[in-house]
Write a structure and sequence with these properties.
The chain has helices spanning 14-24, 52-64, 86-97, 115-126; strands at residues 30-34, 47-49, 69-74, 105-110, 131-133. The chain is α/β, with parallel strands linked by helices.
Amino acid sequence: MRSHCADLKHPPPPTTKKFCFEIFGDDYMYRIWIDDERPTPQKEFDASAKTADNALKIIRKKYKEGIRNFFLDIDNDAGENQKEFYYVLSTVETLCHTGKMKDTNFNVRIHTGNSVARNRMRQLIEANENFKEVL
């Protein structure tokens, strides 16, 4: 049995996603693409965000809906006058640490070409028990 429906090769219809959450419960992983320039690989993700604030809005909303496992495929460099996407990880880390997001897990794949930012994001991931880097 698959650990969550996001592993399916073909995207499930919206009603199937609800069904998957009901069947797999805590094992269901909500997948978010976070990037301001690259197009979202639609078949692999439940949502996408082009700004850090939008990504946090999605995460908070899904947390309130009962989602506790997230997969974030994240860039770092955002558009001009925008917060870097590192801000998403930093804010989520604070929410977990202060108990505002309890029992939540974040699998993170970093796809930034910025090596300095990648290292900074990795340090944050390694220092937080709620995060795990996925290569």
